[in-house]
Design a protein that fits this description.
The chain starts with a strand and ends in a 10-residue tail after the last helix. The chain has helices at 11-19, 37-46, 57-62, 82-85, and strands spanning 2-5, 23-26, 50-53, 72-74. The protein is an alpha/beta fold. α3 links the parallel β3 (50-53) and β4 (72-74). It has four helices and four strands, in the order βαβαβαβα.
């Protein structure tokens, strides 16, 4: 699995996932800070990656049948710890 971490994902999470052998693309490292959600969804799709985000707006957009993506991993910024983000469990959501 490849992960596209949007700009609100902490560097410690990105580093932890990489140490566990997961290929992570960081939007910040690629210079995409400040880009709209639609840009990030498209970029993640081009990279054949799921999006890792704390931003609930991605869930709203991703639920649209017109939006193509490889998946969204939503980690609530208050209830999901950094450690929990590094032990991601995947659950496929039907659209």
């Amino acid at each position: 699995m490849k992960i596209y971490a949007d700009e609100n994902i902490e560097r410690s999470i990105i580093g932890g996932l990489r140490r566990r052998g997961i290929e992570v693309f960081s939007s910040v490292e690629r210079g995409y800070s400040g880009k709209p959600d639609e840009f990030h969804i498209k970029k993640a799709s081009e990279l054949k990656s799921v999006i890792l985000t704390h931003d609930i707006d991605f869930l709203r957009q991703a639920s649209s049948r017109e939006v193509n993506h490889s998946g969204i991993i939503f980690a609530h910024p208050v209830t999901v710890s950094i450690g929990q983000c590094m032990t991601i469990k995947i659950k496929k959501i039907k659209r």
